[in-house]
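Tokens in:
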């Protein structure tokens, strides 16, 4: 089945479509320029292979820059995740240290109050720093489509 094949996956990639369109534009533009030069009587001395070579070189350059851009985006996203993880770790450790210190308090009301504050702080940290499932799903789909 064609939709299950690697070729279908390869053809459906955004990057590959962009490269193919760019190569076609380069080919047509160069071919049109050669035709104009020939019409004006200027001998270009090139063949159809020259047009394909220019299209291949242009598409290779485009492929390189698109791949470079995708890698930069992935690195930036990884750095962002590292920062979020570090903040999350730090703030949850602070909240858990309040729970640990509440154990030594003699008054049960104070212990419960500190534990409740720590739970509220952890809840607040998780709501602020950790993206929701919907946001993660959209980001994952975006990254898969950009490949």
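Residues out:
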């Amino acid at each position: 089945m064609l939709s299950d094949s690697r070729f279908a996956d390869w053809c459906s990639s955004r990057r590959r479509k962009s490269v193919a369109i760019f190569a076609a534009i380069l080919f047509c533009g160069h071919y049109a320029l050669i035709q104009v030069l020939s019409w004006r009587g200027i001998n270009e001395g090139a063949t159809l292979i020259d047009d394909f070579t220019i299209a291949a070189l242009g598409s290779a350059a485009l492929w390189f820059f698109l791949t470079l851009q995708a890698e930069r985006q992935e690195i930036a996203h990884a750095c962002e995740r590292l920062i979020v993880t570090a903040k999350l770790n730090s703030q949850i450790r602070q909240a858990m240290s309040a729970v640990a210190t509440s154990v030594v308090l003699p008054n049960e009301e104070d212990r419960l109050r500190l534990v409740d504050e720590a739970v509220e702080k952890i809840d607040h940290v998780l709501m602020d720093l950790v993206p929701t499932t919907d946001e993660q799903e959209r980001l994952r789909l975006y990254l898969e489509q950009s490949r």
